[in-house]
Amino acid sequence: MPTTAEVQASITAVVKVVNDMFTYSSGDFTTESTALKGTYQDDYEFIADIQSALDGTRDTLSSTISTVSAIIEPLISEYARLADTATAPDKASWAQTGFDEIWARLYRFAADQTTPLTVESRAFTWTEPTHYLANASTITDGRAMVQLYRDSYNYDIETATAEDIEGRCVIDVNRGASVQQETFELSGEAAPLDNTVQGGSGLITSITGLSCSDSTAFISNPSFTSYTGTKTSVDGVSGWTMVDDPAVFTNVNIDTTTTYRTFAGEGDEPASLKFIGDDGVKQVWADTNLSFDAATPYYVHVAHWHPVGTVGTIKLTWGGVSVTTTLNTSNDGQWNLTRIGASEATQKNCWLRQFDINDAEIKIEVTGVDPTSSAEYVLVDDVTIGPMTQYGGAQWYALVGGSTPFLDGDYLGGSASATAPWGAVTGGTSGINQRWFAELFGAYLPSTTGTPVWAEPT
Questions:
Q1: CA nearest neighbour of 302 among 343, 327, 338
Q2: What is the per-residue pLDDT for 86?
């Protein structure tokens, strides 16, 4: 039975072949065939035949590059014959159930090793867009296109295409969208003519904004609109129980004056939950029979507001993961968002693999509020939860409005110009093995910018 090193060496040898062919086709062949066209004379009688033959040669070269995948596929299947040392219950030779299944198993095998089996990274750089109104004014009220490019193991998703992306609102509330669920269109650069040259993705993807309307698939009463009792003497908040004592709501009031944003179906009187003492609220997932897609990341945030003088924390727990925001003078007097997976290092927490636990719950906890001071409190509103949208087969996005909804023509850009697209993904020129796994199969393996375990072609 072959070793993993031997299988890797064979695959790398094939990758070198295809990479060399592409290097030639996108370099010397393109340059020299252009030079050849420059030698044509006006009185060549058979110029059409010459050009047709040259085009046929390019077509053959393009086809040859794409068919190299047929050599690599059976070599990937060789991995299925290897008894591995992965974590139980995977201690067995792999069942050959198709290329996609074997690749998924190979990825787990690579990531689960004590020293992960890594390839050299394609070294993409991911840039968040700047958000502009249709009149080129910068948006400052929290509206955002959130980008996720890490998988559940916290490795970069390296099937991306290095390209600028243009993002523009195409359907707003006045064109039929529900409030806070406007539609943006994301469009990349033009796809290459064929496999002999590099180009953009050629993608045009629609993405709809997430709001509390989406949250109702996961929790009830996400904006605290439904309650019993009075605003200053709350007996209960529908769907929620208190953390300290489930049925005692003395540490919260209802505020209908200061709220973050509305959503379709919220009702005539939007509300926020006002913490006047240290406590928290929670909902247990088992109560709502949730079902998550392990192959999709989820966006989760809570909006909060505190006045000058309130110093403490707010903690958002989502199953097995949590995030805490400090409340102080740097963020008082304004609405702020505490979001799961907000940093590059924690993007993995948006995936079920990380937040999946028994007896899971969503929990919002506030500390640092003096119950004897009417000037200290924390408002909580707009618990937004929803699946993110994938762009092609690579990065994921969540479109999230702010206190003011998007309008038709608002856009994402690199500068305040409707003609300046957003430089979303750059780089991707290193990592030869990884590049061709992505180009040929739309797949990738755990990667590193250091020295990889799986050596590059030489």
A1: 338
A2: 52
Residue 90 has pLDDT above 70, yes or no: no
- 99, with CB counted inside 10 A (0-12, 13-18, 19+), is middle
Q: Which residues contact 446 (CB under 8 A, 6 or more apart)?
A: 107, 110, 111, 116, 117, 118, 119, 153, 155
Q: Across all residues in the chain, what is the average pLDDT?
A: 90
- Per DSSP, 54 falls in state H
pLDDT tens readout for residues 298-336: 999 999 999 998 999 999 999 999 999 999 988 999 999
3-state secondary structure of 295: coil
For residue range 269-308, list pLDDT tens digits in order: 999 999 999 999 999 987 777 889 999 999 999 999 999 9
d(CA 255, CA 275): 10
Residues 273 and 256 sit within 8 Å (Cβ to Cβ): no
C-beta atoms surrounding 295 within 10 Å:
10
Compute the 3-state secondary structure of the chain and give helix, strand, coil in percent, each to the nearest 5: 25, 25, 50
Position 58 scores a pLDDT of 85
Q: Report pLDDT for 419.
A: 57
C-beta contacts of 293-296 below 8 A and 24+ residues apart = 293/352, 293/387, 294/351, 294/352, 294/353, 296/387, 296/388, 296/390, 296/396
Structure-block tokens of residue 189 = 């650069």
Three-class DSSP category at 44: coil
Kindly tell me the sign of the dihedral angle through the C-alpha atoms of 317, 323, 329, 333: negative
The answer to whether 128 and 148 have CB atoms below 8 angstroms apart is no
Length of the chain, in residues:
458
User: Residue 130's pLDDT band (boundaries 50, 70, 90)?
Assistant: confident
Q: Model pTM?
A: 0.91
Question: What contacts 405, CB < 8 A, 6 or more positions away?
Answer: 172, 173, 179, 180, 182, 261
Residue 7's φ and ψ, nearest 5 degrees, are: -65, -45
Task: List the structure tokens of 231.
Answer: 């605003």
